[in-house]
């Protein structure tokens, strides 16, 4: 089940990747910026069709080779499912869930039937052409089933969403805490999808119902943004300050190397809100430190809620989104003050704890554990070099069963996990390594992980 949920979490990253484009078009087209109506409508069209986009993206993510046929099947499956549901119960609305379920079914059916052989007289419909057909047939059956079981499920989901939103500071605090605690196993994307794209409703100026904290924020809901705002102080100030703390506490002869790595990660976090490479640098070295980070994130969510600050993002809580959406936020200047305060807290707290308990954060490892990074040689690109080292560190091509990736991690299925050399992986550029179980391994690389994954596939 954990592996299945992780596959869903990974697959969600593809459709979520379109949100920055949607948010950018929607904001730039507004009257307070460029005032171009068709640009704004173009961005809004993406938000209005998120469920369909999720169906396509999840299907491609679940397919074994990322083929576009799976995406087409996902779209057809979603249309069949929603059409069937409307005929059975006009009030049923599976929204994002309908897209995710359609994508999962289409992806699994693609993996099962993409190479099916049919009799000669049906040969045209064999292979990949069969996948959309079998997906449509399957979704007809599922539409009938969900027509019966979905209304109480929908009522339950709405109740949970209303409770979380109605819980005020407690609700946002619990969400912030769980969001960070689920990162090690990669399930935070599943939680985020519910809160950011499903919970809460708002009727926009056109009279259409908008669901989810992110779409509601961009639709002008004055109550939206509460499940996003608290991340800005952490991602723009808190974690970059944690990087500074790890730099100043590193051993003097290792400080320059550590600074070169952590400064780049801090800038990435500040500008874009991508934090996993930083978090994995201390997550397993000091679980207590990571637990404190999760609690501080929860507290930031509570503080911004209590202060009545509302801000949102199309991608993540970095400076780009902060500036772009500044004019539609509430009390955005106050958010900078909160961020500076959290930056000071992170720096002082991390510096104290690292020194007090002699935590082995980057640059503080025992000398016998330190491996000098291998920069490679020759004319090959850095991703080729990194991939070639990783292949050896992972036990060779025979030890790799499946190579996949999400936004910042290699997601690998390993035949024999005992052959994996974690120390060498870190020396060759990995920010962290996580063993999910005795077959599944995650290697945290950073935002350029896709290029490393592509090179790794070539070598295999």
Automatic annotation (TrEMBL):
<protein>
    <submittedName>
        <fullName>N-acetylglucosamine-specific PTS transporter subunit IIBC</fullName>
        <ecNumber>2.7.1.193</ecNumber>
    </submittedName>
</protein>
<keyword id="KW-0808">Transferase</keyword>
């Amino acid at each position: 089940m954990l592996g299945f949920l992780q596959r869903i979490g990974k697959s969600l990253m593809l459709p979520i990747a379109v949100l920055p484009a949607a948010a950018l078009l929607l904001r730039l087209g507004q009257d307070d910026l460029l005032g171009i109506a068709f640009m704004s409508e173009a961005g809004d069209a993406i938000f209005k069709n998120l469920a369909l986009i999720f169906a396509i993206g999840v299907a491609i993510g679940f397919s074994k080779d990322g083929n576009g046929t799976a995406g087409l099947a996902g779209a057809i499956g979603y249309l069949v499912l929603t059409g069937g549901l409307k005929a059975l119960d006009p009030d049923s609305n599976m929204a994002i869930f309908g897209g995710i379920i359609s994508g999962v079914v289409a992806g699994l059916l693609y993996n099962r039937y993409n190479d099916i052989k049919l009799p000669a007289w049906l040969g045209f419909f064999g292979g990949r052409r069969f996948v959309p057909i079998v997906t449509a047939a399957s979704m007809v059956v599922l539409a009938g089933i969900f027509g019966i079981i979905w209304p109480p499920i929908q009522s339950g989901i709405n109740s949970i969403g209303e409770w979380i939103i109605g819980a005020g500071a407690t609700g946002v605090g619990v969400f912030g805490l769980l969001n960070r605690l689920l990162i090690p196993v990669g399930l935070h994307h599943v939680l985020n999808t519910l809160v950011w794209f499903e919970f809460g409703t708002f009727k926009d100026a056109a009279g259409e119902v908008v669901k989810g904290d992110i779409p509601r924020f961009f639709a002008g809901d004055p109550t939206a943004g509460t499940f996003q705002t608290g991340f800005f102080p952490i991602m723009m100030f808190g974690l970059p300050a944690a990087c500074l703390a790890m730099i100043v506490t590193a051993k003097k002869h290792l400080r320059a190397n550590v600074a070169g790595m952590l400064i780049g990660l801090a800038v990435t976090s500040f500008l874009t809100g991508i934090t996993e490479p930083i978090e994995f640098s201390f997550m397993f070295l000091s679980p207590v430190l990571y637990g404190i980070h999760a609690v501080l994130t929860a507290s930031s969510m509570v503080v911004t809620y209590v202060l009545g600050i509302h801000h949102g993002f199309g991608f993540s809580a970095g400076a780009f989104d902060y500036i772009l959406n500044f004019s539609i936020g509430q009390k955005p200047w106050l958010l900078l003050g909160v961020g500076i305060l959290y930056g000071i807290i992170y720096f002082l707290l991390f510096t104290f704890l690292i020194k007090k308990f002699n935590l082995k954060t980057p640059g503080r490892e025992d000398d016998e554990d330190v491996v000098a990074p291998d920069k490679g040689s020759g004319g090959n690109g850095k991703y080729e070099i990194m991939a070639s080292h990783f292949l050896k560190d992972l036990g060779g091509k025979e030890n790799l069963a499946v190579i996949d990736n999400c936004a910042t991690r290699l997601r690998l299925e390993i035949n024999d996990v005992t052959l994996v050399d974690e120390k060498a992986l870190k020396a060759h550029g990995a920010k962290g390594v996580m063993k999910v179980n005795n077959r599944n391994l995650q290697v945290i690389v950073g935002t350029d992980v896709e290029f490393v994954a592509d090179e790794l596939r070539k070598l295999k």
